[in-house]
Write a structure and sequence with these properties.
Blueprint (H helix, E strand, L loop, with lengths): L8 E5 L5 E3 L2 H7 L3 H4 L4 H5 L5 H12 L4 E5 L6 E7 L9 E2 L3 E2 L1 E6 L5 H11 L6 H12 L6 E7 H4 L13 E10 L7 H4 L5 E4 L4 H8 L3 E3 L1 H12 L9 E11 L2 E11 L7 H38 L10 E8 L6 E9 L5 E11 L1 H19 L4 H13 L7 E9 L4 E7 L5 E3 L5 E3 L22 E4 L5 E5 L11 H15 L4 H11 L9 E8 L1
Antiparallel strand pairs: 1-2, 1-7, 3-4, 4-7, 5-6, 8-9, 8-13, 9-10, 11-12, 12-13, 14-23, 15-16, 16-17, 17-18, 18-21, 19-20, 19-22, 22-23
Length: 535
């Protein structure tokens, strides 16, 4: 065959298989000119004697007024084809070749548009790690271009982070519908009958359970869907039987089946063929990789979130003479390593530690947890801030999970408002004064934790500073002041303005006001904010 067209091609045949109409698409598909084709027997023209008998059977049905759909061996790989009688304006068959009825033979090139569809799938599927969005991208690519309806089902146990076998009792499978799309001419109410996020148990006799059990493509008809839906809901859906050709394609990645995709075509469209099934398998394979990535991310995100929630202090206790308000906001795309702690000390003093372990996910959360526990222990032992950071640096160097971390340690005596401060590469504290001005609170900068070595140990200088009466001291992580749109210095200036605008109220109100003023910073990275004010 010559270069194939991207869309189906129609030729006109007489009931005995001779060509009576031959367009440019047919010429491109079969490599024969109209002059060569018209009047010739199609199977002889193409040198395909094996196609003569099935083509004659298809033409006979079409001559009786009954459309025929199937695969004809008109090429090495076979061609999806449909034979339809040509109806004239008066309701009878159009007369050609002695008054006998003409037949329209429509053939689809193997994988017609398949390369373009796969290319589009590669561009659109998996643009994010959101599981529902990924599933939605799959059906958006395939409907209506490849199918009249499409849906994605994922094993419920994967969404629950459960490693039990896929099958339920008696071979049943439990899946969740993550996305579904219908052709525009299907009833709008179908979305209510097949809602997203519905959890369904399919018995072992169903095509869906068979697809999961065997890991192979399963082809079936709309009657199976109608029967299943009627059994589950007690209702029949008008038009569901119009979806006459369906494929269940397993979603397999890294040697395990995650669920399945379902594609369906309505009557009047060519049923799925072997070439279509191969294309569906390729689409399902690419989709499975994206879904697997999203599932892994979802599992890691849930683990990291749970780990971090367990490791951050549930409550803080401020000593007499000092108010403390704190906020933590996780990033939308992943759990980071921001952390803080407030440690009561003898004589009503208090140690405050805030830090940020590099990275996101379980690794950052684990490093954060170990460093927070270590800092809490060191501060409880009444080591001064500089010594706390020196010892934390040695611990950080021995943690496989931590590449490095920033940290600031402060010990405050509420009776005198005198503070001892040391810093390891952390953003500088801000002091909002009662007169509406803001200045940096002294914090000598040192190397981040974990980046030095034993031969060149860091020196963490410790300074003394005082919180003036009525002032608000703000400790924070870089998620509150840094983004792709602005650098740290610009972000710190915005934080200073937000502190001034919010300082008049109670300290909890000030914390809420600061975050409201800097709402555009939220979601991109973890944010920790800790405010202190003499009471």
């Amino acid at each position: 065959m010559s270069e194939q067209p991207a869309s189906p091609v129609t030729v006109l045949l007489t009931p005995d298989g001779r060509v009576s109409g031959w367009g440019e698409g047919a010429a491109r598909l079969f490599g024969r000119t109209a002059a060569e084709a018209v009047g010739a027997v199609l199977t002889d023209l193409l040198g395909r004697p094996a196609a003569a008998e099935p083509l004659a059977a298809a033409l006979k049905l079409a001559g009786e007024g009954r459309p025929w759909y199937g695969v004809l061996p008109l090429s090495d790989e076979g061609l999806s084809a449909a034979c339809d009688p040509m109806t004239g304006a008066g309701g009878g068959t159009g007369g050609i070749a002695g008054g006998r009825g003409a037949v329209a033979l429509t053939v689809s090139p193997p994988w017609a548009g398949g390369l373009e569809l796969l290319s589009e799938a590669g561009r659109r599927i998996g643009s994010t790690l959101d599981l529902h969005r990924t599933a939605g991208e799959i059906v958006a690519v395939t409907v209506p271009r490849f199918a009249d309806a499409g849906a994605i089902y994922v094993l419920e146990r994967l969404l629950a982070d459960d490693d039990r076998p896929a099958a339920g009792g008696g071979g049943s499978v439990v899946v969740r519908r993550l996305a579904i799309a219908f052709a525009e001419d299907d009833p709008g109410g179908w979305s209510r009958e097949f809602p997203v996020n519905e959890v369904i148990v399919y018995p072992p006799s169903t095509p869906y359970a068979d697809c999961l059990a065997t890991g192979r493509m399963v082809e079936f008809g709309g009657d199976a869907v109608q029967d299943l839906h009627a059994h589950r809901t007690g209702r029949l859906i008008d038009g569901l039987l119009d979806h006459a050709s369906l494929l269940a394609a397993p979603l397999t990645a890294r040697g395990r089946t995650l669920g399945f995709a379902v594609f369906s075509r309505k009557r009047g469209r060519l049923p799925f063929t072997a070439a279509d099934a191969a294309l569906a398998a390729e689409l399902a394979g690419r989709a499975a990789t994206s879904i697997d990535n999203a599932c892994q991310y979802r599992s890691e995100h849930r683990t990291a979130t749970a780990l971090k929630a367990a490791l951050l202090p549930a409550a803080v206790s401020a000593p007499p003479g000092l108010e403390i308000a704190r906020r933590y906001l996780p990033a939308r795309s992943g759990v980071g390593g921001d952390w803080y702690d407030v440690v009561p000390l003898p004589a009503d003093r208090v140690a405050v530690v805030i830090g940020d372990s590099v990275g996101h996910g379980v690794t950052a959360a684990a490093a954060m947890g170990q460093l927070r526990v270590a800092a809490h222990t060191l501060a409880s032992c009444r080591f001064p801030p500089g010594e706390v950071l020196t010892r934390l640096d040695r611990i950080a160097q021995g943690l496989d999970a931590a590449q490095f971390a920033t940290c600031l340690c402060l010990v405050c005596d509420p009776a005198t408002l005198r503070c001892e401060v040391a810093c390891a590469g952390h953003p500088p504290p801000l002091l909002a004064l009662p007169d509406g001005t803001v200045r940096h609170f002294p914090a000598p900068d040192g190397l981040p934790l974990g980046v030095s070595d034993e031969a060149h140990p860091p020196e963490y200088e410790q300074v003394t500073a005082v919180i003036p009466p009525g002032a608000t001291l703000a400790l924070y992580t870089d998620g509150l002041v840094e983004s792709r749109m602005r650098n740290v210095d610009e972000g710190i200036a915005r934080l200073a303005s937000a502190l001034v605008a919010s300082q008049a109220g109670a300290l909890e109100e000030t914390a809420d006001g600061v975050l409201a003023q800097l709402s555009d910073q939220q979601g991109h990275d973890d944010i920790a904010l800790l405010l202190m004010r003499p009471s």
